[in-house]
Amino acid sequence: MLLDPPSLWQRLTLLLALATLIASFGSSFQYGYNVAAVNSPSEFMKQFYNDTYSDRTGELIDTFALTLLWSVTVSMFPFGGFIGSLLVGPLVNNLGRKGTLLFNNIFSIVPAIFMGCSKIAKAFELIIISRFLVGICAGVSSNVVPMYLGELAPKNLRGALGVVPQLFITIGILVAQLLGLRNILANEEGWPILLALTAVPAVLQVLLLPFFPESPRYLLIQKKNEEAARNGKARLCAAPRKRVCGWPGFPTAAAPSRGAARPGRHLVAPPEPTSSLLQTPLQVFVVELWGRRRLLLLGFSTCFMACAVLTVALALQDTVSWMPYVSIACVIIYVIGHALGPSPIPALIITEIFLQSSRPAAFMIGGSVHWLSNFTVGLVFPFIQVGLGAYSFIIFAIICLLTTIYTFFIIPETKSKTFIEINQIFANLNKVSGIHPEKEELKTFPSDTSKQQ
């Protein structure tokens, strides 16, 4: 059976755009929001901890115990993220990609209620438990959203849509910081509301996401439901059911010839941006222009140079008057470098280089390493800073350098390639056969997919 010409499935349809926005806002936005939500009201929350302890015991909590409680509160989020990453595989295999995102909102709505009621209930334990639960939510969503969008998108839009979750994480952080101003919600009365607002995107996702299709690749390959997969793909392509768009490895219903009419009138252009609050990240456009590999190399090498120069600047800041300005510049440059590649690209790479059968396990491993690293750095870095002082960032410079070298020699470019083409690239690198008959996803696909896509 033949695939439709690739021109049928190259433009962003309205349904695909809305699915991307709902999935990213409902999940990735929460992730960023909860990263920053506790920063601004921290002093009021610590006072709440102290007052609660005093009401229970008649004594004020000592400084060490208060610091420990707050550290536990903060660290519960990345620890929950680690646990959430471990749940990704079983959840996406049993509930599907969309089903997992819907189920995951339990870990947002329930803790939002807990945090909103914690002051009234006079129980700071509810906040600590809730931080763990929203961490699980972030751990699941940070892996499943890129997987879901990567399987919905055509190959030429996979990169652009794959970095949208990172944009919403950034927006979530910004919104939390804006709402965390003292005259808004970061005050004695408003901080429970600030924490509870994480339920808003979750509720919207629960209401809206059911109207969007499940990943057709999941339905076809893992659920063996070709009819549902065809219907879902036809909706995403805004095309008639019997003219399924050219989706990697997805046979058409009626096996039309290459000369068949192209239903271009059914495709719509990307919607206009609705807000200019944040500058649109360059990655949304650049990732399909420059490719994944170049952005990774540029990002990690920039981070390496920023860490190296920052180390020198910190070492000389007491002897050279203008070195503090160099330090500030290095931090800004590091953030830019991190946003170019290390932040948005790894999840996209995981989506592209692994086949359907191994993709959930790959996200579990990648997500676990990510969140465990966050937890470890937050726990250990204060001690590293005491021990190494100005040379603390040498460790991160070495990691960035080694990653740059690894990327240069090992990671191929995956831009505008089908999953099977990418599989063949790695097969060639490892000098093995790229098409494995025992792989169900490769059995289903025509052997000439790469030529037609």
TrEMBL record:
Alphabetically ordered keywords of this record: Acetylation, Cell membrane, Glycoprotein, Membrane, Sugar transport, Transmembrane, Transmembrane helix, Transport
Gene Ontology cellular-component terms listed: apical plasma membrane; sarcolemma
GO BP, sorted A to Z: cellular response to fructose stimulus; D-glucose import; dehydroascorbic acid transport; fructose import across plasma membrane
One Gene Ontology term of the molecular function aspect: D-glucose transmembrane transporter activity
InterPro entries xref list: Fru_transpt_5, GLUT, MFS_dom, MFS_sugar_transport-like, MFS_trans_sf, Sugar/inositol_transpt, Sugar_transporter_CS
Transmembrane segments: 68-89, 101-121, 127-149, 161-179, 191-212, 295-316, 322-340, 361-384, 390-411
Source organism, top-level taxon: Eukaryota
UniProt xrefs under Gene3D superfamilies: MFS general substrate transporter like domains
Pfam families: Sugar_tr
Subcellular location: Apical cell membrane; Cell membrane, Sarcolemma
Residue ranges of domain Major facilitator superfamily (MFS) profile in the record: 20-415
Record membrane topology: Multi-pass membrane protein
Catalytic activity: D-fructose(out) = D-fructose(in)
Coarse class of the protein's main subcellular location: membrane
PANTHER family named among the record's database cross-references: SOLUTE CARRIER FAMILY 2, SOLUTE CARRIER FAMILY 2, FACILITATED GLUCOSE TRANSPORTER MEMBER 5
Membership in a protein family: Belongs to the major facilitator superfamily. Sugar transporter (TC 2.A.1.1) family. Glucose transporter subfamily.
Protein name: Solute carrier family 2, facilitated glucose transporter member 5
Species whose genome carries this gene: Spermophilus dauricus
